[in-house]
Predict the 3D structure of the following.
Amino acid sequence: MKRLLRAASALALGLFAGAASAGDAPPVATAPFDYYVMALSWSPGFCDLGGERKSPRQCADGSGYGFVVHGLWPDNKFGPDPADCDPSRDASSADLAATRGLYPTDGLAAYEYRKHGTCSGLDPADYFASVRAVRDAIAIPPLLQGVRAWKRLPPEAIRQAFIDANRNLRPDNIAVTCAKGQLVEVRICVSKNLRAFATCPQVARNTCRRDTLLVAPLR
């Protein structure tokens, strides 16, 4: 377990910049798909839009969650995206312990492995090491750190803030999603080998089309 965490941290230092060696990286996914989508959920928006009933601990006052990992999803350029590839496979309690601080709850981590991780061809430890490596490599822009009051921002300003904060990130790698006028998620496409952002126009074109979004404050 410590070896996997060290590998994830080392990979994060050079991810998308070509600095990580092959020995540092979690194993490359073996299943057939084109790239990953890292979905980062804006926790205050999730909680405001019904999430409080689903995840009361995540949404409790004082929880302090901003962007949290919703999932790392195998995705395809064309055709259906894989899901529920082997629902009989489950992450162990040790696997879930290694995700603390990554997903907001163990339940979400377990669900995400069954629904999406099994479609990577990786076992839970290697899949979660990949999730951590990608998450650690993505910088949250200052504009969306420590939000203590409601903000109203154009979706394009949010997308540009991520582009400015992350080397090599381009508009065709990222989408900002919304619901009921609020920020919900930022989705960033990553290559299957975890070494570059991936071009994913079908994801990017689903970015929110509203003029402005409400960004809920941290709880």
User: Anything to note?
Assistant: DSSP finds seven helices and six strands in the chain. The longest helix spans residues 124-137.
